[in-house]
Structure formats: C-alpha cells, structure tokens
Design goal:
heterodimer, A: mainly alpha, Arc Repressor Mutant, subunit A, 3 domains, two-stranded antiparallel sheet, 11 helices, B: mainly alpha, about 80% helix
Chain lengths: ~260, ~80
C-alpha cells in the first residue's frame, strides 16, 4: 500500500522548492492535477497529524508581544510620574502601534494622529490601568479606538462596525486551486509586501479591524470583542470572513503568476 | 459534516479552537475532500504570511513628531 502524506508544511518549513501542494510520499513526487478550478483527488490525502494549529505553531511571533520582565517596574514608575519610564514604554511599542493604526486607518496622516493621541491618552489615563492585563494590550485597545474613530470620520459609508454583518451566505469559495510554491517562495519580499498591502487594503474595514487585532496584534477573541464593543460570536464570524476573503484575494495573485 | 459546515469551522479549526468531536469530524471530511483541505491549508498560510510579513516601520519624521509631542506632554502636568 502506498503511503501518502500531506507534506506541504514540511516543505514550507525547509523552504524546499516544491512543484505542488500535494505529493505522494511513497513514490516520486506526484502532483495533483488541476482541472478547471478543481483538484483531481486521486492521490490526495489530508494528514491531520501534519497539521499544526496557529495557536501552537506560532507561540511567539513578535518579541515585543512577550512581556519583558522589567515592564511592570516601568509601568509602576511611569504611574508614579517617572517620565523616562513612560518614554521607554513608548520606545518599546511605538513601531507596533503605528503598524496597528496604519492597518486600521490605511491612511498615514490618520495613523500618525491616532498613534500620537493613543500615547497621550495612555499617559493621561495611566493611573486607571489596572495591571490585570498586559500594558501592550491596554495600549492596543486605546490605539485601536483612536484609529477607528478616524476611520469612521473619513469613510463613514464604508464602515459599519456597529451593524450586524454576520450571516452564513456565500462563504464557500468558488475557486479552489492549488497555489504551487507558497507566496513567500514565489514573490520577492518587497513584491510580497506590496501584494499584501493591496490585499488588506481591499478588505472591508469591519473584517480588517478584527483580523488586525486578532491575527496581527494577537489579542484574544475576548479582548478583541471588548475593544470593538461587539460580541465574541461576532468577532469569530468576522475573523472567519476576513481570513477567507484574504485567502481569496491572495489567490488571484497566485494564479496570475503561475510559473511556466 | 459537509463542506459548508467545514468552511464555517475553518477559522476555529486553524486556531485549534474546536472540541475533540468536531475536530475529528472536520478531519474525517478533509481526508475525503481535497477542495476543503486546500482551503484549510491556504487559509492558514494566508494568516501566517500576513503575520510574518507585516513590516514594522516607523518613519523617522513620524517618530520625531511623536517624541516632540511626548516631551511637551510630559513637561506639562495633567
């Protein structure tokens, strides 16, 4: 009996060139045939043992999401009026907060204003920070709200964070085709940044904001819900839609650039 | 479990946020449905690419203005 495995993740991990998403491990690489958007399933088996959930495969994506040991000391010092301690906290998180406000507003001027106001408000309200969450999470909530306020002003008709957008219609992707080499293998880094920038820019602000808070800033579902003032099921629903839409938008770039 | 139901659970599945019985049902479906399996793989990959490729650049002029504003704020008692 031929042993078949789902090997894509292994190939990604080693960055080995691979002609297709699927391969038959028992013989030489045997690629799935892509016909009219459907995959010939003859030799394909999904091996769940090779699949790692995001929560376990990316425990620490960014060093600054890990609380440094000295952070409680800095926060306490800043609370007692130590300006240098607060400046150190700003230095630590300014780049990530700017990325957050850029991701939400998609406008540099708004992002800068939102970031500045977020740090100013954080300083003014520091005595109210209860230290029952990470300082960064608290800061993200302030910055996200500053960014959302500016986004609503600039694009009132495109933004409906308070409106229900959930529903179970039209979720099943229509075009399902293997990507071949991963986007990271296919595109140069600068080009990939440009593509991702365009893709996220096209996403509905309701979905984008949840995606940014949950997947990029790594807030929990509950923290995201509290930040946006929406329910946990609404966060989950918007995250699902955001992820599926991003996949779909990225999919178009992958097929435009199929190697010969 | 059918394709529509699997798609509804994709996000929870790639987060590892489904109970054992649902996980088993999803994986049983994925073993028989390459289309859904591709969507699962590509969706997870999409999240990873966005997270790993997000630039964290703060332009010098933006940073300079932030720190000027901060200095003014820190000098001024609330």
């Amino acid at each position: 009996m031929v042993h078949k495995e789902f090997v894509y993740f292994l190939n990604r991990a080693t960055k080995a060139p691979h002609p297709n998403l699927w391969a038959d491990m028992g013989t030489s690489a045997h690629c799935a045939t892509v016909i009219s958007g459907c995959v010939n399933a003859t030799n394909l088996v999904f091996d769940a043992s090779k699949f790692t959930a995001l929560s376990t495969s990316r425990p620490h994506r960014l060093a600054s999401t890990v609380v440094r040991e000295d952070e409680p000391v800095l926060v306490a010092a800043a609370k007692s009026g130590d300006a240098a301690a607060f400046e150190e906290l700003v230095n630590r998180y300014e780049r990530k907060i700017f990325r957050l406000t850029m991701n939400i507003t998609r406008n540099r001027e708004d992002a800068e204003d939102a970031m500045q106001d977020a740090f100013m408000k954080a300083y003014s309200h520091l005595s109210g920070f209860q230290e029952d969450s990470r300082f960064y999470t608290w800061l993200v909530r302030i910055a996200a709200n500053e960014a959302l306020m500016r986004l609503r002003k600039r694009r009132p008709n495109q933004f409906s964070i308070d409106e229900p957008v959930e529903g179970e219609d039209d979720l099943m992707p229509r075009e399902i085709e293997d990507w071949g080499p991963s986007p990271e293998q296919r595109f140069a880094q600068t080009e990939l940044h440009g593509i991702l920038d365009q893709v996220i820019d096209q996403l509905d602000p309701d979905f984008r904001t949840v995606f940014v808070l949950r997947d990029i800033e790594e807030l929990s579902t509950e923290e995201t819900a509290a930040t946006l003032g929406i329910s946990v099921p609404a966060v989950k629903s918007r995250l699902l839609r955001a992820r599926l839409k991003l996949r779909q938008k990225l999919d178009r770039y992958m097929h435009d650039r199929k190697p010969n | 479990m059918n394709c529509d139901r699997v798609i509804l659970e994709i996000s929870n599945y790639i987060d590892g946020d489904v109970d054992a019985a649902i996980k088993q049902e999803i994986e049983k479906h994925l073993a028989d449905c390459p289309e859904c399996a591709i969507i699962v793989v590509q969706t997870k990959l999409t999240v990873e690419i966005f997270c790993d490729s997000q630039p964290i650049d703060l332009p010098q002029d933006v940073r300079a203005r932030l720190h000027e504003a901060l200095k003014r704020k820190l000098r001024k008692p609330d």
